[in-house]
Amino acid sequence: PSSDVAAGGNGASGYMVVKYPNIPTGPLAALLSLLISLGFVSEQKSFRVPLVPPENHEYPIEQVTIWKDSPSWLNYGAHLPDDFRTYLGVTNPLSLFRADPKSYREVYRCAPRRDQLGYQSVVGFQDAYPVHLLNIASVRDVAVKVKKDIPRFSARRFRSNVLISGPDAYNEDDWKKVKIGNHF
């Protein structure tokens, strides 16, 4: 599936649009395939998920334990269409969770302090770092080393929010600052 972030709602927030192929199934699959090929039915399906929950939301709130903290998460499962689960080949229950914006955790390890930034860095579900930078070359080197035991090892395993390519493997281990555009 792919996703697009688009403006929506009141303009202050937006939503993520998840698109996936319209794969006909069931007794009318042949007819639906014909309608798709003729252009009467879209080749893609999609659903939207709010980036910021509305103030009056009714999402189930659940607790998760991360080390000694117990932040809340919002169960966004109501946004997932049934056929998305089928498309993914999932037979178990499937849901989508979002960190509750009212339950972010302040981070002190490996993060600038409030007196330096004017605020304390926060995270949702991450262990302890507000930014997880991952060097693709390092991941590829590890993948070669574990190929026998983990044949499909990839960067997706690490849930990073910044991926970089170009530097040699493990070069990032010695970095003290990272500059992106005009920002450090």
- How many strand elements? 10
Low-confidence stretches: 7-11
- Report the span from N to C terminus: 32 Å
Q: Largest beta sheet, briefly?
A: 3 strands, antiparallel
Task: Write structural notes for this entry.
The protein is an alpha+beta fold. 16% of the residues lie in helices and 22% in strands. The protein has four helices and ten strands. The protein has a three-stranded antiparallel beta sheet with strand order 1-2-3, with no helix packed on it. It is globular. The two termini are 32 Å apart.
Brief descriptors of the model:
alpha+beta, three-stranded antiparallel β-sheet
What is the element layout, followed by pairings?
Blueprint (H helix, E strand, L loop, with lengths): L1 E6 L6 E8 L7 H9 L6 E7 L10 E3 L8 E4 L6 H7 L8 E3 L5 E2 L7 H4 L4 E2 L9 E3 H10 L16 E3 L20
Parallel strand pairs: 9-10
Antiparallel strand pairs: 1-2, 2-3, 4-5, 5-6, 7-8
Short description:
By secondary structure, the chain is α+β, with helices and mostly antiparallel strands.
